[in-house]
Amino acid sequence: MERGGKTVYGATVGILMLETQFPRVHGDVGNALTWDFPVQYRVVEGASPDRVVRNDPSDLAERFIEAGHDLIRSGCDGITTTCGFLSLIQEEVKSALGVPVATSSLMQVPMVQSLLPAGKRCGVLTISEEALGPEHLAAAGAPPDTPVVGTDGGRCMTRDFLGDKPTIDFAACRLDMIDAGLGMMQSYPDVGAIVLECTNMVPYARDLRKVTGVPVYSIYSFINWFQAGLLPRHFPLEVDDPRWM
C-alpha cells in the first residue's frame, strides 16, 4: 500500500535559490537540466549573491526556513541551496525544517579528507577567498587549516557572479578556474583533492581535474549522493521470495 501525505511525488530534492539574474548554464545547480532526477526550486527573496557571500547570511535564515517549509509541503524530503557560504545557517535551517539539509558543498570536505592518504589535504576553491573565513569551514565541519584559493583576482568570475551581471563570459570564467586550480597546486603541493565551494563552478570540474591531476568534488557530486539516500535506486531481484518484493 502506498503512503500519501505529499502533493508532489518523485522530486525529493528541494533547492533553495539565491535571488539572481545571471545566466545559469547546463551544469549549474540552478539549471534543472543539470540533474538526472526531478528537483524542485524556491527563490529566497532578498538573498543576493553579494549579501550572502560578503555579509552574514544569518539575518536571512528565516527566509530560507520559510522557503524550505514550502518545498517540504510540496513533497521534498531533503533541502539544499545554491551557495556554499550558507554553511553558516546549516544548524539553524536543519533544526527548523526537520528533514536532511545540505546547505553547502563545503560539507564534503571532511569526507573527502578522510579518503586521502597520509600527507595529503583537501583544498577548497571559492568564489571569494577574501570572504570565506574559518567560521564557514567550522560550520561545515572542515579542518581550520584547509587550504583555500579564490577566483577573486581573475578576469571576471568573482566580479560578475557576485555582481549578479545579466551576461557572463563563461570562457573567461573557465580560465579563471584553471588559474585558481593551478595556483592551488603551486601554493599547496600537498593538496590531494579539491572541493568547489561555489555552485556555479560545476561546469569547470572536469577541466580542473585535467590540469591539477587530483579529484574534484562539487555541489553536483554532493547532491547526487544526497539524493541517492533520499530515493535509493531500485534494483529488481531475480528471486521468487515475497520478503524481497
Let me know the number of strands: 8
Helix content: 25-40%
| Overall geometry | globular
- Per the CATH scheme, the topology name of the largest domain is Rossmann fold
Query: What is the CATH first-level class name of the largest domain?
Result: Alpha Beta
Low-confidence stretches: none
The CATH architecture of the largest domain can be given as 3-Layer(aba) Sandwich
Strand content: 5-15%
Biggest β-sheet description: 4 strands, parallel
Number of helices: 9
Number of domains: 2
Helix and strand string, N-terminal first? EEHHEHEHEHEHHEHEH
Oligomer status = single chain
Sheet with most strands: strand arrangement: 2-1-3-4
- On the 0 to 100 scale, the average pLDDT is 95
Describe, in plain words, how this protein is organized in 3D.
The chain has 245 residues and is an alpha/beta fold. It folds into 2 domains: 13-104 and 224-230, Rossmann fold, CATH 3.40.50; 105-218, Rossmann fold (3-Layer(aba) Sandwich). The protein has helices spanning 49-54, 61-73, 90-97, 109-115, 134-139, 157-162, 170-187, 205-212, 219-230, and strands spanning 13-17, 39-43, 78-81, 101-102, 121-126, 148-150, 191-196, 216-217. The strands form 2 sheets. It has a 4-stranded parallel beta sheet. It has a 4-stranded parallel beta sheet with strand order 6-5-7-8, with helices on both faces.
